[in-house]
Amino acid sequence: MIRVLLCDDHALIRRGIRDTLSDAPDIEVIGEAGDYGELRTLMRGTKCDVLVLDINLPGRSGLDVLHVLKDEGNPVKVLVVSMYPEDQYAIRALKAGAFGYVNKGGDPAVIVSAVRTVAQGRKYVTPEIAQMLVESLTTPSHQAAHEKLSDRELQTLVMIASGKRLSDIAEELMLSPKTVSVYRARVLEKLGLTNNAEMTVYAIRHGLVGET
After folding, report:
1. What is each CA distance from 77 to 2, 27, 116, 164, in whole angstroms?
2. Interhelix angle 11-22/108-119, nearest 10 degrees
3. How far, CA to CA in Å, does 101 sit from each of 2, 26, 71, 87, 106?
4. Distance between CA 21 and CA 171 in Å, rounded?
5. Domain spans of the chain?
6. Cα angle for residues 149, 152, 154 (degrees, 5° grid)
7. Weakest-pLDDT range from 33-42, 79-88, 172-181, 198-207
8. pTM of the entire structure?
9. Do the beta carbons of residue 49 and residue 26 sit within 8 Å?
């Protein structure tokens, strides 16, 4: 039996994933968490084979969690299930230690297949991610400016380009407005931009957010 922990801040999404996985005869969901703090508490008292982890969590993001688990040498295998398209976070997640990356909007059966693959210690990547990996190997010199951003800087860029105010971002990420302003300033500097409108245009052009 594959023992799974879920970590997603949306209860309805957790329920949907839990129901999908619970229908599989060889998978058991043994716990759920809505943020990093709850996840840490769960993991101290529960051994699991696979952690199904969202990227967009309050406070520490899923990428932060991946870095922490990697630094601690935690052997749990992580499958990232995110609303973000593969070209935004998949490579970052895999580099941070994830065993796979699946989009929430895809076929639910894919999540079941991915959990089984990851539980065996194998990487799970979609054809789209495989293509991105090949391209990154064959054209290592080509790198978009936003790929040089830190995980939190990229997250700030995407949220600003999605129309969120700095105060909203600060509340969602459990950071101070001043800290979010620092991330914004770094994004502007690294991308050679001057204001939020230019950030939004950049994000749309590079497929980081959809056009509104």
Report:
1. 11, 14, 11, 33
2. 70
3. 18, 21, 20, 11, 11
4. 31
5. 2-138, 145-205
6. 45
7. 79-88
8. 0.76
9. no
- In this prediction, residue 182 carries a pLDDT of 94
- CB neighbour class for 204 (10 Å; exposed up to 12, middle 13-18, buried from 19): middle
* Owner of token pair 């040498």: 73
User: Between 3.20.20.70, 3.40.50.2300, 3.90.1170.50, 2.30.110.10, what CATH number should domain 2-138 receive?
Assistant: 3.40.50.2300
pLDDT tens digits for range 45-104: 888 999 999 988 887 889 889 988 988 889 999 999 988 777 778 888 998 999 999 988
Residue 97: closest CA among 51, 36, 156: 51
Which amino acid type is present at position 132? M
Domain 145-205: which topology?
Arc Repressor Mutant, subunit A (1.10.10)
Picking from 35-39, 75-79, 129-133, which range would have the lowest pLDDT averaged per residue?
129-133
What phi and psi, each to the nearest 5 degrees, are found at residue 128?
-65, -45
